[in-house]
Amino acid sequence: MKIGFAGFGCVNQGAYKIICEKCIDVKISAVLVRNPAAYQSQFPALSFTTNLADLQSCEVVLEAISSDSYDIALFCAQNKIHYVTANKALVAAHYAYFTSLPTRFLFEASVMSGTPVINTLLSTFGLKSVRGILNGSCNYILTAQKNGQSQQQAIIIAKQLGILEADPSADLDGLDAARKLLIICKTGGLNVNMQDVKMQSITNQQQTNMNLKQISSYQNGVLSVKVEQISENDSLANINGTMNAVELEFEFIGKITITGCGAGSEQTGFGQVCDLLRIMKGK
């Protein structure tokens, strides 16, 4: 199978590493990036390009870019190319359109890295409620505050470790978690919109030595991302650092909890590769 990459940062490099290590039977036709010279010497076996049309020979494209990728996704759909993405902004905004097309549009890596939340939702029905910690960056900061560190210090260290972007507003203000919450709800068959999500920034919560968590929830039709002080016997109380967890409540079976990594090159790349394998297996 011929595949291509759109973007070649940490996530798709993680996917590429897994593909090579596991000898997955694909041919990489093109890698779409802004600056091919930045990658060519380190990855001489790959063909880097700035030309979107070079993806036309691919059967599947794995996309992981931080900017708007709508035009890339649309190009792939128009050229009957299956699309695998880690781009939560794209999925949250255009879920209905791209999932309605004949080509596959898969996005396991967009929520909780490679932890199989999306696949769980696709193989079940009757989602009633959602409650979880969906942003690893905020969870890292709030965990540091719980351990006595100031929020300002925690943010500085998180940036140094690469946990936070240079502009961390989407994480801190709740937008990133809201997008993930929407993706979970939409995949679970719920009719939800971004304008319905009530978001609260963690920057308003400067307290230390308290067990604060950024909780994303869908309860009785209400969507929210807010900071809560939770008790030690709460099922989310011990989800610390960059770890994520989500409680999904279904008709007939009640609640299940899924816990996993909230960040990481290979972890998120794993989600990309899992979706690629689903396409290759025709699932």
From TrEMBL:
Matching PANTHER family: HOMOSERINE DEHYDROGENASE
Domain Homoserine dehydrogenase catalytic residues, every copy: 118-277
Family membership noted in the UniProt record: Belongs to the homoserine dehydrogenase family.
One GO BP annotation of this record: threonine biosynthetic process
Source species, domain of life: Eukaryota
Keyword annotations: Oxidoreductase
EC number: 1.1.1.3
GO molecular function: homoserine dehydrogenase activity
Protein name: homoserine dehydrogenase
InterPro entries recorded: HDH_cat, NAD(P)-bd_dom_sf
Pfam families reported in the protein's UniProt record: Homoserine_dh (PF00742)
SUPFAM superfamilies in UniProt: Glyceraldehyde-3-phosphate dehydrogenase-like, C-terminal domain, NAD(P)-binding Rossmann-fold domains
